[in-house]
Amino acid sequence: MKIQTNGLVIGATALVLTAVAVTGAGLYLPRGVAFFKDSPKELVDEVWQVVDRFYVDGTFNQKDWRAIRKQYIQKNYKTKEEAYKATRLMLKNLGDPYTRFMDPKEFRDLQVETSGQLIGVGIQLSQNEKTKKLEVIAPIEDTSASKAGILSKDIITKIDGKSTVGMDVNQAVQLIRGKEGTSVTLTIQRDGTQVMNFKLLRQQIEIHPVEAKYRPKELGGIGYIRLKQFSANAATEMGTAIQKLESQGATGYVLDLRSNPGGLLYGAIDIARMWLDQGKIVSTVNRQGTGDVSSANGTAITKKPLVVLVDGGSASASEILSGALQDNKRAQLVGTKTFGKGLVQSVRPLSDGAGMAVTIAKYYTPSGKDINHAGIKPDVEIKLTKAQIQQLVKDRTKFATAADPQYAKALQILQATIARNGNAAQKK
C-alpha cells in the first residue's frame, strides 16, 4: 500500500475538531470526487462501499457486511440527517471508534483545523476501544484545558451535565464546541474514583507546533525542542529549529513529545529524516497483506546525541517518530509508556460535502513491533507522582527544568552520551 505524501495525510493521532482531536493514525485524504449522486440513500451506500473496499479487517469485525448493506439500503430516508444517523449506526457494527462519519460541517472543520488553527477548549479526545468511554489523550498546551489542570487519561463523564454514556466522539464534539467566548463544563473522572468539574472557556487556539530553545547553561549548551503536534507546518518549523540550534553550537538535544497526540503522518516521516541518516522509519500493512516502508534518505540535519521524552499522551505520529528513533538506536526514550495507537485511517470526501475516516492499515515500528494498545516502552522509565504532575500543571515554568524529574533524567542521560562520544573521538 502506497502512502502518498502529496495529499493531506493526518497521521498518527489527531483529527482536530474544534480543539477536540479524535485519535487516529496515519490519516490520508486523497483528492477526488464522490462517485455517487447526491441522495440520502446513495450516501449510505457510498460509505458502505468505501468500508467494503478499504477496511483493514476483511472479516468486518466478524460481521456479514453484505447483509448489513441490505439492512440499511432497503430503508427509505426522507432527509440527509436520517441518512447521517443511519450511516453512523452502520459503522458501529465494525466496533472501531476510528472509522467514523463526518457531516459536512464536521468535515469542513477538519480540513480547516489541521492547518493548526481552531476554536475550542484544547482537548485531544478519543473513545476507548474497550470501555467506549470518552478519554482525554492530552490537553493542548496553553489552552483552557491545560490551564485548568485536565490530564491525559482523564475520562469525560458529563458535558454540561449531560452523561456521556453511549456517546461517541462526534456527539461529544458537537456538545463541547461552541462560539468563541462561551464556556462548557466537563465532568472528569480521574484514576477511576476522583470526580471533578472543569468550566472551560472556548477560545481561538493557534498552534505553533514547535517550541525550541538554546540552553547555554546546560551541558555546555543544548537544544531543547518541544513538539506539541504534527500539524501542517510542524516539519518546516522543526527543520528551522534544528538548523538554528546547530548554528548556536548545541552539543546535544532533548526532544519533548510528551502529551503530543499526533497529527500528520508525512510530518512524522519528514521529521524522523531530520534526525536519521539511514534506517527504516515506519511500515504499514493493509488487509491484503500489502506493505509499504518509509525510510531515512540521508538528509539528517544533525547526528548529535538525542534524548526523547514520552508519556501516555504521546500517540500515533509521536509513536512513529519515537519508535523509529528508538529502534534505530538514534535516541534513548525517557518517561512512561506511550498511548498505543498503531492504526492508519484514510480520510475521504463524500458526495454532499460530508466525509469519513476509515481504518485501512496497521503500522509497525522499524523492528516490526505492533504498538496498538501496547504502546512503546521507554528505555528509562520515570513515572511522575500525582503531586509532581499537579505541581507541573500548576506552574508551567517548572516544566522541562530541573524541577521536572523526567527532563532532569533526560539531561543526565544526555550528559553521559556527550561524554562518551567525546571520549570516543579522543581515542581516534
Detailed description of the structure:
This protein is of the alpha+beta class. Among the domains are: 121-206, PDZ domain (Pdz3 Domain), CATH 2.30.42.10; 210-341 and 365-427, 2-enoyl-CoA Hydratase, Chain A, domain 1. 30% of the residues lie in helices and 27% in strands. It is built from 11 helices and 23 strands. Strands 2, 3, 7, 8, 9, 10, 11 and 12 form an 8-stranded mixed β-sheet that branches. A hairpin with a 6-residue loop joins strand 14 (210-215) and strand 15 (222-227). Helix 1 packs antiparallel against helix 2 and helix 1 runs parallel beside helix 3.
| Unreliable sequence segments | 1-37
- The chain-level mean pLDDT equals 86
Classified in CATH, the superfamily of the domain at 210-341 and 365-427 is 2-enoyl-CoA Hydratase, Chain A, domain 1
Highest CATH level, the class of the domain at 210-341 and 365-427? Alpha Beta
Named CATH architecture of the domain at 210-341 and 365-427: Alpha-Beta Complex
Biggest sheet layout = 8 strands, mixed
Distance between the ends: 45 Å
Total DSSP E strands: 23
CATH topology of the domain at 210-341 and 365-427: 2-enoyl-CoA Hydratase, Chain A, domain 1
Query: What is the structural class?
Result: alpha+beta
- Please tally the helical runs, counting DSSP H or I stretches of 4 or more residues: 11
Q: In which range does the helix fraction lie?
A: 25-40%
Q: Approximately how much beta-strand content do the residues carry?
A: 25-35%
Rg over C-alpha atoms, rounded to the nearest angstrom:
22 Å
Write down the overall geometry.
globular
